[in-house]
Here is the input.
Amino acid sequence: MQMYLDCIPCFVQQAVRAARHVSDDPDVQKRIVREALSCINAIDFSDPPPRAGQIFYRRLSEITGIPDLYQADKEMQNRLALELLPELKRQIEISPDPLLLATRLAIAGNIIDLGAHGNLAITDIQKAIKQALNEPLFGDWEEFKAAVNAARDILYLADNAGEIVFDRLLIELIIAKPVTLVVRGAPAINDALRADAQSAGLDKLVEIIDNGSDAPGTLIGDCSSEFQSRFAAADLIIAKGQGNYETLSDEPHNIYFLFKVKCQVIAGQIGQPVGTQVLIKSKVISPEIGSDR
Amino acid sequence: MQMYLDCIPCFVQQAVRAARHVSDDPDVQKRIVREALSCINAIDFSDPPPRAGQIFYRRLSEITGIPDLYQADKEMQNRLALELLPELKRQIEISPDPLLLATRLAIAGNIIDLGAHGNLAITDIQKAIKQALNEPLFGDWEEFKAAVNAARDILYLADNAGEIVFDRLLIELIIAKPVTLVVRGAPAINDALRADAQSAGLDKLVEIIDNGSDAPGTLIGDCSSEFQSRFAAADLIIAKGQGNYETLSDEPHNIYFLFKVKCQVIAGQIGQPVGTQVLIKSKVISPEIGSDR
Here is the structure.
């Protein structure tokens, strides 16, 4: 999807939070916000919103000289999620529909997003888990379940650190099929890298590849040719998070998007309020491709 | 006061609303938002926030070729307020403290602000009036009352159209002293111009001057020399609206600011929530000046 007008002030707001995250010096903060204004003004507004984030956070790393600006946050988020893991596994074990609950929890984990959210409290995560346990998903659950059952192989596009621990709950239930987990190729806000997947213990369960890109989403043309081949050949793609939805919703593939609605723009597109747990199928899949799967 | 970091996304949000106000064409809207990003990036962040608005709305008039972009809104706001006037006058007549109620209502009228607010509904105005009738002011009411009683003359800096009708309620109670009403010198969002003061019938009650500037606030150095002289010589200044507060809060004069808190930045400064009815005295007045008045 392309950038909406409303994405622009939201992006600037995110830049203000990022500026405060990397420095306490008002002059540095102002310089960073000025850079953000330049970044957003320089990009093509027909690009998906994560393009702005990619350019800005790359510039932010240059300015600060820190390649991975949110490393400490990511480690903390992984730790926090790993502490919750045993109890969540127990919930899934006693659930009448383990796949449904694991899917809901994987979506609940998408609350851990430093792009859209500023400060994430443990109470926010607990609230998301409670919602996952109690509220239905919006979207194409039955179709998703059938697609997972029918899939020859699954490409699982991860989103954030911390969240990736929640992804493990779902991945553990679908690894009867070959699952390849995809992480970002380089730091992008708190998005999961290979190290985060390893922290979550996923390297022992599935193949992990990276997409070769530092965008907080999946800008296909910006990804490595290896990833592009895997993406093109994938039988079923599970794409986590709003950034992946924003960058892939126009791609003609068999993609299911799992995320929590983070902003009014997506809320308007989906027709559901902010906070909704969404599981929707790519709407641009052609009938030919669709009938083949 | 200088621009806060948080003013910047808020300003961009305002620009998005302005873009939608002046055009339905997505390309024109995008161009306008790009102009806003350039405007905000070009200004000195130590300037007060209304400087950004001044430069942006001036540019918006150039782009659209429309000198007064909110003329129809202002006329509608004046009409709306004039319809409410008789009932509000009656409320003041039966009030045990007419000056207090008129002051509260003058502040309530400050809800009519197209800068901070997007779409203003009649229900918002009714809510503000109800609040004015029921909730206390935050600030220096007793001091203000004494200052009005002691003043040799009063310079009354208006803010918005529509609001200026509410100002009339207060002005009618203080015209035992010479009152000069100041409007903007040229269109600035929905800020009141001479025509709006005339619509409110204020030309029959007090002298009206304009400040010679198109800023949505009072940037002294940008105002006419006539206004600057009147400002310097004024015994008591009543400044309406957040824009006047943002531009004059550091001026060493005997100023009382009357406004509704419109944003988190000012809420943080004042220590009161958004929506609070504020009447505060300039804190930078020197003891020498203060003791003379």
Observations:
- The interface with chain B takes residues 5-6, 8-10, 12-13, 15-16, 19-20, 26, 29-30, 33-34, 37-38, 40-41, 45 of chain A (CB under 8 Å).
